[in-house]
Amino acid sequence: MSIADLRPGPGPMPCALRSPVRTGERAAPRLLPVVLWPVVDAAALTAVAFAMGVPGLPGALYVAVVLVVLAVDGGQRLRICLRVGDQVPRLAGAAAVPAALLVPWTESGWLAPAGAGALVLARGAGGAGMRAAHRRGLLVEPVLIVGAGPVGTRLARALREHPEFGLRPAFLADGPAGDGTPVLGRPQRLGELVVRHRATRVILCAGDTDADLVSIVRDCRPLPAEVYLVPSLPELGVAVPQRFLDEVWGVPLVPLRRFAHTGAAVRAKRAFDVVVAGALLVLLAPVLLVLAAAVRLGGGGAALFRQRRVTGAGRSATVVKLRTVPVGSEQGWSVCATDTTPLSRWLRGTHFDELPQLGNVLRGEMSVVGPRPERPCYAERFAREIPRYHDRHRVRGGMTGWAQVHGLHGDTSIPERAEFDNRYIENWTPWLDVVVVARTVGIVLTTAMGGGQR
């Protein structure tokens, strides 16, 4: 069942499942966290460009570029703590670079400081207006606190005593809360309850619950809510830029990454796959034909070897490789040295035997970068024996991966591979794929010049 399947219907909800927002309060529109700062920033920058006489097209371009810079840097996210001081360096930097490009049109170097000042003033005014609305019971957001222990109780009390945060707390816990805050259900129902109560924020207090929060959050991603983690030692500072942190009355909150689990990320990754796989296939087609002919003439059977592999959750594909062992010798986990030739050992060592999988990538069955796909029998076995092994199937299998560029291939630790694969999925960015491809090319070239042994 997906998150979309859990959306509430038009009928009334049972009393026990009503939203934590109280009678008389007005909930914030779902789009408010998305549109508030872009609208405020655009209005402030447009006013500055007009006041300084920047022509229409350059002025519009300036506003658009600043908004894009802030969006890419995470500066448009509506934080819980609306303190402007933490945002000043980010706002100044976003206003400065585009302004430098418009000096020929402005005949003045004051656009950057004026733009930065306007952003700070607009954010300050917007934050003050939000806090005033929250104190009057307007634009209130439901927040689910996972864990009703000491940290969760402290957060719930702070949110009740300080309505300027605009959050109405409710717990997800295995038992009742001692402070009277409503408990809406168990942590295992996180995805369902976020949708049912239209919660916009979730705070994970790992030390306040025995639930496996990693598995729970992964199972219901992407959640239609911001998810935060309370550090296990909140009294100590964390090496995370202040602009990315959030805070509730002295308790730091670390937001979890969302982009890697969105539809935009899926489309960006697919575009990367098509471009890279298409370019490599055109560039390496002569090499692939020569290698296929060499394999065929070497007497090992057909040049191509096909095998069914698990390439994602509920997905499998016929993966194609250059044959490196005789027919009937490819059924085991490892390859016996007596079944290989110098050419096949070189192909396996350089990973050139994987080149035909570029076709799998172009067909959308695999990615260039991702967890290496395994045969169904091994995937099922590892999923039973290794914690969170199945989590690596959240994305398409890849020709190369974060585990492989760290030397985890062949007869190496499967738990370590799963750990590296899941870390890659959680921290994915387009740049990370570029890094993995570059490191793979370096490893392949080094191995090829060294004779292809591994």
Outline the structure in words.
This protein is α/β, with parallel strands linked by helices. It has 3 domains: 3-26 and 140-256, Rossmann fold, CATH 3.40.50.20; 32-135, no CATH class; 263-449, no CATH class. The chain contains 14 helices and 11 strands. It has helices at 32-51, 56-72, 88-101, 103-106, 111-135, 150-161, 190-196, 213-219, 263-297, 342-350, 357-362, 376-385, 414-426, 430-449; strands spanning 141-146, 167-172, 183-185, 201-204, 226-229, 246-248, 251-255, 304-312, 315-322, 367-369, 398-400. The strands form 3 sheets. Strands 3-2-1-4-5-7-6 form a 7-stranded mixed β-sheet, sandwiched between helices. The longest helix is centred in the middle third of the chain and has 35 residues, at 263-297. The two termini are 43 Å apart. The model is unreliable at 1-18 (pLDDT under 50).
| Number of helical regions | 14
Cα distance, first to last residue?
43 Å
**How would you describe the shape?**
flat
**Number of E-state strands:** 11
Please state the CA-atom Rg, rounded to the nearest Å. 27 Å
| Strands side by side in the biggest sheet | 3-2-1-4-5-7-6
> Whole-number average pLDDT?
84
Strand content: 5-15%
* Helix fraction bin: 40-55%
Largest sheet: 7 strands, mixed
